[in-house]
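Fig. S4 source data, part A: sequence.
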Amino acid sequence: MFLLVCLACVQHYKYPLVMSNANITSQDITKTHRRILMELQQLRYFLAVVEEKNITRAARILRISQPALSRQLQRLEDELNGVLFDRTPSGIILTENGYYLAERAREMVTLADKIVTNLTTEETLHGDLYIGGGETTSMLSVIRAFHEMHQQHPEVTIRIHSGNGQDILDKLDKGILDFGLVIEPFDVKEYHHLQLATADRWGILTRRDHPLGQQTTVDAADLRNAPLIISEQTKDQQQFAEKTGLDFNASRIVGTYNLLFNASLLVKEGLGHALCLDHIINTTGSELIFVPLLPNVTSNTFLIWKKEAVLSRPAKKLLEWLRHSQNETAL
């Protein structure tokens, strides 16, 4: 357990463990092990208060006394030499330091739990799979592979994180995710990767009552003077601009988005047309419609994982199922 928790903490915490094998004693290990477990517990207490926004409620959920929880929080602030909360009559408000610690603490606790769970040695395959991805129908290929795997290994659970490309890469590089799902244009050479069999089609999400919504396709000429809402991932990609024939520098960009749902609200209000992938927003019976680009523009999707990563048993098994299903699709 000592080494597992060290791996989770050493990157972020203020007390990195630097020991040579010659200096390590059983007493060192015991003391350091206890210290790290205690510090992780402090972070769990801290996160409970963050979630509840109230120390009394958090203490009740944690099943400890309110004074004991307050002492733990004060000790954490003393160790970090900073104020994490502003105490008010209605509850607590995070300071800038508090927001930063909350984000890092979630990563550390998640990583610690992930390592401990996935390295527990039992004959039965169990543990958690951590997968992150943007909005793409290719996620369905991963989910179907997991479903087949789960029927044989029901003690494996899947934890899906939705986010934009940079968010997924950050969590993958930190070891929080086992796999990331990324969409072209993306340079995959820094990662192990598996290209999925399905490809996503590009077009615009627009209102049905707009003239562009009456067309069966749209091209660069149709969009030249149209107000566009584009994804953060594509706005700086010259390769994507060349494929679509769109010149983003000359286009009327009225907004950008990371995930499409909120962008669809902008479209509903008539602020512009969202350049996006098909089948992300269900337009059946709605005032919105997806109109594909012409010429047809598609993007491949890749499952990626770190080259230096040692995959957990559940992650290796999912990869086997996914490769098998991709081979069947190709036949």
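Fig. S4 source data, part B ends here. The chain has two domains: 2-118, 127-331.
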